[in-house]
């Protein structure tokens, strides 16, 4: 039997500071073969990125390998990766492609730097190699891309350049660390397809580090699930996702939103359709233009009924966040009208809206939960603040009682209330943000990607919480997300936005099963997914 | 032709924008000097009158002739008109026109300031880069301590101490007065910068002489700005080193020197350049102190002497000159930034 | 009630921990305390009258009688330095206080309000902070007249744009943060957002700036008086003392420059180290 391309055996890595030492990898072992893709899957802090960086020899100074070996093509590279191997033997594709490229150097020079670091080529040969690389990563506009600075290219093109850089010196192994973070769904798919194709064509090995189970399932031959610095389960994607053995893997797979996952019993959903025919919010011909003349929101109209949940789906730059801010009256409307319970609320300026009676009826849950909490306020103060500002303030002990009760209803224990944002986890911050929004009993809750920054398991809990709160309190939701599956789970109706315009609107089951527009179909197709057992 | 058409307008627009932004500040400075000239004690009419016994009528007559009885806005317009034609008034102490005096003395100040700037950059850039590269090391701590020490020495103290140690005590430096031994033949004046003039004339004795005189004042001034420049370089390099593209460069196996110079220093240079602008204006201020200590025949000592003897026309001229210099320097830096950072020139 | 106690406890910051984390800054605090105590107690502990001349004992080298020697009029240098400490510290503190209050008010307003007023202010402030401020201070003292009060105003005015800039940029950077938008949604008035949300959060940065600025203000004030601006003649001030002493350097009377110059350096150093220490303490990211 041939030796695998890369073998990691019993690897232990510790982060040390002056006073303490903390082990982040507790003896992990894995191997990668030529032409195969190994996915390292895990939540944040599971040690999957550290594994990649250790292999590359890019650990920060404070981190040391305490035990174990890493062998690449039979050579021990545990503690030192020779420069000749970096780039030419093992290459890496990073997240946030735009940031991964030097902003003050032309693409051509950056690629040439990489090639010349390993090969002596004359000018003509170099040029030929550059053009060849561009073709390999399917860039057609070769000369423009080569002469451009990274900021002049789109995120997707930048990622192709980064991939071109990685394959420039024909490495045997590529480590892709969350290669699609910061890219839109459609771009994400093409970048991943490209990476997979190159891996197969050039018979390289690839380690795909990702938090996205769907992506791991779709693009890998082998999956290792990591948690707290250990590999809890490994196997082929089919095995792992259809019949997970480990308890944690099982929970992870269950929590991952897919085409069939549901939050509630369908009959309940049916019952809801008939209730609340009154229109709560109506948006007519909404327009928001920014100084440069760019129309972030372009003639958008829709309505939300009482107790209904409307999903707003779109890629970055589609205007979905702007719409949520317009409706919550954080920014001023350029033209169009927003009617809440039949009264127009778009005439009052955003600056003065805090005085309006509708202020407490429309509340907002922010995307970055931790960032939406005043760093100098305890959870208690954050939650009680809206009540103090907008009333009615209950007398004496009733106030504290109400806060504690609200906190409990979002699953926060009483001792959490004394903590500051930096002392809480992301999930806990999200719960505080929700508690703060619902304590004044709003009629409409606007949720701007409330789970985008959360790990899968926490996301599932928060989604369940939101669904329960809606049923208990009869609120309406405007749920903004880029994740189609999440919207389908939570919402009755959905709107698909693109470049500030509505592309498609309708009931969720219709949109997802029989999309009318081409764009929606593309979006649905691009989501990385794994087929549950029944579908395989 | 078309390429030029493509290139020029943004550049011109950029220069125009920058100058336009500086105009309000320049206007404020002019207004300030105007008010200063009016508020300050001493009636020019009385001064220019025939003598202490000049009659009231004669003074009134002169006031009228000089336009001093006109309403303030008119006087201000008149003042602006004078400025535009380069008339900065006449110095009472030297008896020459201020514009001429300054023209003679400006090269001395520029030579001093530019030498000091070059000296400090030569020290700060490598120091900051290496300190950041090995940040947290003993060397880094030493550099930081050195900066703290440099930063707290007022230039007038360090100058006097340098003179004491290098001239009186060790006898290393020449007599710390003036730019060049006035008994030696002077190189022909072309740029006014002695180092350049003497080098152009091939007069190396004079060059050595001038350079010798320049060492102490330039060092004094450089010492004052080494700290901010080094700190800024260090901070900028550290922030660049944390950037994703440096990690990419490392992962791709680029040679260390290339990462250090082409990837790190090149990107760190932009914030440093901004600091250079601020440092330059600090130096223009410190010029006053240094020129006084070393009896340097520059514009700042000229203005200071005038200020002490209540001769305000040179002071006004000096302030206006500083304002113009400052606008010019910032324009140059801004254009350099545009060259260095491709992202800037696009917007 | 109990909740308040817990809050207080978790916020408390032991001085022992401060010394361990920032030994240099702690040392700077120690040095500053000594200087301040000396300055406050100057009239009591001065061995001689700082203004009384004693010509027969002029230009004496430091000895047991006159610790720091005497100047050309026979005045005791040590007593003069103590008296000068009083003056220099009060000039610096009052100048920084004036510019801080005025600058932060204007900066917060502009930064929060945004719009054209803010852009214009920003431009002007940018230009001003890059302007040769020392020259401006010189001119100001010349126009306003030679007095200590005017020296303070001049120093305050040249510090003013820095506070506007820092307050403005700190407020503008936070204006659109999640927790400020959340405050809007919670029905908080703009005034309250600035005072209760933004100001407490930018205060640490301002305090750091003020500490660094105190050193700078002393440097400026001493520089101006070194040039003979601001301080009337017999009043002892460090910059004036250095200027006087410079005449006697050539004859080897080093103590006339070294002691006041040294005091200046130590004071400025302490303020700077304190500022750096505070900054490191408040922003763990800058710690290497």
Automatic annotation (TrEMBL), chain A:
Subcellular location: Cell inner membrane
Gene3D superfamilies: P-loop containing nucleotide triphosphate hydrolases (3.40.50.300)
Protein keywords: ATP-binding, Cell membrane, Membrane, Nucleotide-binding, Transport
GO molecular function: ATP binding; ATP hydrolysis activity
GO terms (BP aspect): peptide transport
Family membership noted in the UniProt record: Belongs to the ABC transporter superfamily.
Record protein name field: ABC transporter ATP-binding protein
Source species of the chain: Gluconobacter sphaericus NBRC 12467
Source lineage: Bacteria, Pseudomonadati, Pseudomonadota, Alphaproteobacteria, Acetobacterales
UniProtKB/TrEMBL annotation, chain B:
Signal sequence residues: none
Key words of the record: Cell membrane, Membrane, Transmembrane, Transmembrane helix, Transport
ABC transmembrane type-1 domain mapped to chain residues: 106-337
Membrane-spanning segments: 21-40, 112-134, 146-170, 210-229, 268-290, 318-340
Gene Ontology CC annotation, any one: plasma membrane
Subcellular localization, as worded in the UniProt entry: Cell membrane
Pfam families: BPD_transp_1, BPD_transp_1_N
Superkingdom as given in the UniProt entry: Bacteria
A molecular function (GO) term: dipeptide transmembrane transporter activity
Membrane topology term: Multi-pass membrane protein
Family: Belongs to the binding-protein-dependent transport system permease family.
PANTHER family according to UniProt: DIPEPTIDE TRANSPORT SYSTEM PERMEASE PROTEIN DPPB-RELATED
Protein name per UniProt: ABC transporter permease
Origin species: Gluconobacter sphaericus NBRC 12467
TrEMBL record, chain C:
Pfam families assigned to the protein according to its UniProt record, in alphabetical order: BPD_transp_1, OppC_N
Protein name: ABC transporter permease
PROSITE patterns: ABC_TM1
Localization terms from the record: Cell membrane
Assigned protein family: Belongs to the binding-protein-dependent transport system permease family.
Residue intervals passing through the bilayer: 21-45, 89-112, 124-145, 151-168, 214-233, 254-274
Stretches assigned to the ABC transmembrane type-1 domain: 85-275
Recorded topology in the membrane: Multi-pass membrane protein
Natural source organism: Gluconobacter sphaericus NBRC 12467
């Amino acid at each position: 039997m041939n030796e695998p391309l890369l073998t990691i055996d019993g690897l232990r890595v510790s982060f040390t500071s002056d006073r303490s030492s903390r082990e982040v990898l507790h003896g992990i072992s894995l191997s990668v073969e030529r032409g195969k893709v190994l996915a390292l899957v895990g939540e944040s802090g599971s040690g999957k990125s550290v594994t990649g960086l250790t292999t590359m020899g890019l650990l920060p100074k404070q981190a040391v390998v305490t035990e174990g070996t890493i062998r690449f093509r039979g050579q021990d590279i545990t503690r030192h990766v020779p420069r000749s191997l970096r780039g030419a033997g093992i290459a890496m594709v990073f997240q946030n492609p735009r940031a991964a490229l030097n902003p003050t150097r032309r693409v051509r020079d950056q690629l040439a730097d990489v090639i010349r670091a390993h090969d002596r080529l004359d000018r003509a040969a170099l040029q030929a190699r550059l053009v060849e690389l561009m073709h390999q990563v399917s860039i057609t506009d070769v000369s423009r891309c080569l002469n451009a600075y990274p900021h002049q290219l789109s995120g997707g093109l930048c990622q192709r350049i980064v991939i071109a850089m990685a394959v420039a010196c024909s490495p045997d192994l590529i480590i892709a660390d969350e290669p699609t973070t910061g890219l839109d769904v459609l771009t994400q798919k093409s970048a991943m397809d490209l990476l997979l194709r190159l891996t197969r064509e050039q018979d390289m090995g690839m380690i795909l580090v990702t938090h996205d189970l769907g992506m791991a399932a779709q693009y890998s031959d082998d999956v290792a699930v990591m948690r707290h610095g250990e590999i809890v389960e490994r196997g082929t994607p089919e095995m792992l996702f259809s019949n997970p053995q480990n308890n944690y893997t099982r929970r992870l797979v269950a929590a991952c939103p897919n085409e069939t996952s549901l939050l509630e019993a369908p009959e309940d959903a049916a019952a809801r359709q008939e209730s609340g025919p009154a229109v709560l919010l109506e948006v007519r011909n909404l327009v928001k233009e920014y100084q440069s003349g760019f129309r972030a929101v372009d003639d958008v109209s829709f309505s939300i009924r009482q107790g209904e949940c409307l999903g707003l789906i779109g890629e970055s730059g589609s205007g979905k966040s702007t719409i949520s801010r317009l409706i919550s009256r954080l920014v001023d409307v350029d033209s169009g009208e927003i009617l809440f319970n039949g009264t127009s609320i778009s005439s009052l300026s955003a600056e003065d809206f805090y005085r309006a009676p509708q202020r407490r009826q429309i509340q907002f849950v922010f995307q970055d939960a931790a960032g939406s909490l005043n760093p100098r306020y305890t959870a208690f103060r954050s939650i009680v603040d809206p009540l103090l500002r907008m009333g009615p303030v209950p007398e004496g002990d009733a106030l504290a009682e109400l806060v504690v009760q609200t906190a409990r209803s979002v699953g926060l224990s009483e001792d959490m209330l004394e903590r500051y944002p930096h002392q809480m986890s992301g999930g806990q911050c999200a719960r505080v943000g929700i508690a703060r929004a619902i304590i004044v009993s709003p009629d409409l809750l606007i949720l701007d990607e409330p789970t985008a920054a959360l790990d899968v398991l926490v996301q599932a809990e928060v989604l369940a919480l939101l669904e329960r709160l809606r049923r208990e309190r009869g609120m309406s939701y405007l749920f903004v997300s880029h994740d189609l599956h999440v919207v389908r789970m939570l919402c009755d109706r959905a709107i698909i936005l693109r470049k500030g315009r509505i592309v498609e609107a309708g009931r969720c089951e219709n949109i997802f099963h029989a999309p009318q527009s081409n764009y929606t179909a593309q979006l649905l197709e691009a989501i990385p997914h794994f087929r549950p057992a029944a579908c395989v | 032709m078309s390429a030029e058409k493509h290139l020029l307008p943004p550049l011109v627009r950029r220069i125009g924008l920058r100058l336009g932004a500086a105009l309000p500040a320049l206007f404020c400075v002019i207004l300030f000097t105007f008010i200063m000239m009016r508020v300050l004690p001493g009636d020019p009419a009385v001064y220019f009158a025939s003598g202490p016994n000049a009659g009231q009528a004669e003074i009134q007559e002169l006031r009228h002739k000089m336009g001093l009885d006109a309403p303030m806005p008119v006087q201000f317009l008149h003042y602006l008109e004078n400025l535009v034609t380069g008339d900065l008034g006449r110095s009472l102490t030297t008896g020459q026109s201020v514009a001429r005096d300054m023209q003679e003395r400006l090269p001395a100040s520029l030579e001093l300031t530019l030498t000091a700037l070059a000296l400090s950059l030569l020290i700060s850039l490598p120091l900051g880069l290496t300190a950041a590269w090995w940040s947290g090391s003993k060397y880094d701590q030493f550099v930081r301590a050195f900066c703290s020490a440099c930063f707290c020495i007022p230039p007038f103290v360090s100058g006097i101490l340098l003179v004491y140690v290098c001239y009186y005590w060790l006898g290393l430096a020449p007599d710390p007065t003036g730019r060049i031994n006035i008994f030696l033949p002077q190189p022909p004046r072309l740029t006014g910068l002695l180092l350049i003039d003497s080098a152009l004339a091939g007069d190396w004795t004079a060059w050595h002489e001038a350079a010798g005189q320049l060492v102490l004042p330039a060092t004094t001034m450089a010492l004052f700005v080494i700290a901010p420049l080094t700190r800024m370089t260090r901070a900028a390099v550290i922030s660049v080193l944390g950037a994703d593209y440096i990690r990419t460069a490392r992962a791709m196996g680029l040679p260390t020197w290339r990462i250090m110079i082409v990837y790190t220093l090149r990107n760190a240079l932009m914030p440093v350049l901004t600091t250079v602008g601020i440092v330059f204006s600090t130096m223009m201020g410190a010029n006053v102190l240094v020129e006084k200590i070393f009896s340097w025949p520059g514009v700042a000592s000229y203005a200071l002497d005038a200020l002490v003897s209540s001769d305000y026309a040179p002071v006004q001229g000096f302030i206006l000159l500083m304002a113009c210099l400052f606008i010019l320097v910032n324009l140059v830096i801004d254009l350099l930034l545009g060259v260095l950072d491709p992202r800037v020139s696009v917007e | 009630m109990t909740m308040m106690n817990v809050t207080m406890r978790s916020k408390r910051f032991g001085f022992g921990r401060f010394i361990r984390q920032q030994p240099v800054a702690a040392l700077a605090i120690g040095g500053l305390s000594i200087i301040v105590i000396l300055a406050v107690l100057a009239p009591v502990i001065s061995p001689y009258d700082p203004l009384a001349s004693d010509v027969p004992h002029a230009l004496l080298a430091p000895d047991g009688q006159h610790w720091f020697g005497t100047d050309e009029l026979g005045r005791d240098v040590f007593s003069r330095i103590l008296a000068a400490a009083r003056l220099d510290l009060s000039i610096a503190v009052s100048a920084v206080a004036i510019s801080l209050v005025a600058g932060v008010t204007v900066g917060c307003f502009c930064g929060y309000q945004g719009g054209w007023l803010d852009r214009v202010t920003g431009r002007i402030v940018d230009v001003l902070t890059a302007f040769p401020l020392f020259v401006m201070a010189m001119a100001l003292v010349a126009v306003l007249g030679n007095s200590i009060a005017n020296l303070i105003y001049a120093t305050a005015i040249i510090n003013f744009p820095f506070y506007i800039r820092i307050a403005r940029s700190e407020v503008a950077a936070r204006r659109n943060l999640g927790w400020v938008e959340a405050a809007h949604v919670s029905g908080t008035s703009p005034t309250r957002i600035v005072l209760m949300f933004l100001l407490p959060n930018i205060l640490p940065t301002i305090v750091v700036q003020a500490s660094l600025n105190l050193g700078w203000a002393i440097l400026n004030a001493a520089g101006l008086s070194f040039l003979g601006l601001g301080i009337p003649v017999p009043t002892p001030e460090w910059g004036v003392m250095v200027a006087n002493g410079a005449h006697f350097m050539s004859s080897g009377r080093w103590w006339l420059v070294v002691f006041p110059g040294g005091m200046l350096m130590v004071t400025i150093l302490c303020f700077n180290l304190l500022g750096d220490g505070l900054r490191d303490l408040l922003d763990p990211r800058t710690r290497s």
